[in-house]
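Render this sequence as a predicted structure.
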Amino acid sequence: MRARDLAVEYESVSVDSDAMEAARLMAEHRLPGLLVLDERGEPKAILPASQMVKALVPSYVIEDPTLAAVVDEQHADRLCQALAGRRVGDCLSHTATAPPIADPDDTALEVAALMARVRSPLVAVAERDKAGTHLLGVITASHLLHELLGKAGTLNTPTA
């Protein structure tokens, strides 16, 4: 099984996309993160859902979590307003690295090793040439596990 066979279409956004729309996309599709593309349409970063949640929480609560207990529900319901007018690029961590990219001919084990090494919930599959990087799709950790367990004959096997 090669990366090109495992790759599926996956939701992506650009660095200039609306952050609120990106959050809605994650929530509606229950995604662990989004692939963020640069202005050329090439993979730039992965925006984990946890990073988007962090963008909602006021910095003073992150610094002192005990303050979360004193914020009433009415104010907690307004957390999403923190995304209003922000771009996806504003929500990326300052230490965000380029997303892991697998070659279309990589094996499932090579993809798994890459995913494990960089601790990423998804890997982009792309062809690289002189013109740039051409995204073919994405492999998520859950999809890779499903395929590997299915091939091993351990999927849907009851345990004692």
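Summary. The radius of gyration is 18 Å. Strands lie at 12-14, 33-37, 43-48, 101-102, 122-129, 132-140.
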